[in-house]
Amino acid sequence: MPHEARAFAKEVGTLAGPTRPTARKIALGQELRRLRVLSGMRIEDAAVRVGFSEAMLQRIETGLSAPRLAQHLTALLEVYGIEEPNPLVEELLAIQREASSQEWISEFKDGMTPTQMPKFVGIEEVAKTIRAYHPLLPWGSLQTEPFARALFAMQQPVLEAPSESVEKAVQLRMRRRGFITRAEDPVALVAIIGESALRQVIGDIDVMQEQCAELIKLSKLDNVTIQILPTTGKRYRFTADFSILDMGDELPPQVQADNAWGALAMSGKPRDVGVFTRRFERLTASALPPEETEEYVRNLAREIK
């Protein structure tokens, strides 16, 4: 087996620690896809050879799932020409065991309606940097608990969701908030928020005042940068929420975008990441500089009625 494959497995073996299964699923999927391509095999042919559905193998390669059993992984590796005894097999099996382990996200999965949401949250937790654009709402991890609760309560009857789903959604949002506020290795966040996000009242005036104060407080963290995109002036704009998640050198960046149906799409394709990166750069240039955030948000808070 090529040296670079062994080096990859060794590097991934230390990625994000044993408590971060989602990152391991993505890393394992990336490597399995690379090995399949090197073998010259199409995904549909590989799936037939190991008795998987093509959809299942696609989920494995994109990091949505990990091979549930060790036999599934070894069968894939054999199809790709990698058989035991081989140090790479053992290293990938170790990653598979940790990728298949129970993770805290599972307790919230029932309330995660977009199918890719668990993957997104798992990546978000281990990301080095997140660049996020939200024109109509503060980015999720910047929201206060009262704001999040009012937001989910407003949507609950529309979605015909059970009332307990509101509290679970709030708990998940507060858990995600911890990614940027934790003391050890917090995620770096660069967020561009549309001015409309702070002019549209969610909950009541007190909720909005508290949300504005929290944005100012979070903007002072070393790992958080917040810019406001005013509604006035000739500026570059984009209508949909999106984020770019950079996981350092270990894994390729991922781009996430929402659509009007409430679904969440993710892609690690270089072209998609490139388009959204350029889009974010244009938005960064159009938004107010970070040093103006505090004063601008304070003025907005005074105008909320």
What characteristics describe this protein?
305 residues; alpha/beta; 6-stranded mixed β-sheet; elongated; disordered N terminus
Concise summary:
The chain has helices spanning 3-12, 21-39, 43-50, 54-61, 70-79, 87-99, 117-126, 145-159, 164-181, 196-199, 205-219, 270-286, 293-303; strands at 129-134, 188-194, 224-229, 242-246, 254-258, 264-267. It is α/β, with parallel strands linked by helices.
Write the layout of secondary structure elements.
Elements: H1 3-12, H2 21-39, H3 43-50, H4 54-61, H5 70-79, H6 87-99, H7 117-126, E1 129-134, H8 145-159, H9 164-181, E2 188-194, H10 196-199, H11 205-219, E3 224-229, E4 242-246, E5 254-258, E6 264-267, H12 270-286, H13 293-303
Parallel strand pairs: 1-2, 2-3
Antiparallel strand pairs: 1-4, 4-5, 5-6
Helix pairs in contact: 1-2, 1-6, 2-6, 3-4, 5-6, 8-9, 11-13
| Overall pLDDT score | 84
Compressed to H and E, one letter per element, the order equals HHHHHHHEHHEHHEEEEHH
Radius of gyration: 21 Å
Structural class call reads alpha/beta
- Low-confidence regions: 1-19
Sheet-strand content, in percent, reads: 5-15%
Give the CA-CA distance, first to last residue. Answer: 66 Å
* Helix percentage: 40-55%
The side-by-side strand order for the widest beta sheet comes to: 3-2-1-4-5-6
**Envelope shape:** elongated
**Helical stretch tally:** 13
Number of strands: 6
Query: What can be said about the biggest beta sheet?
Result: 6 strands, mixed
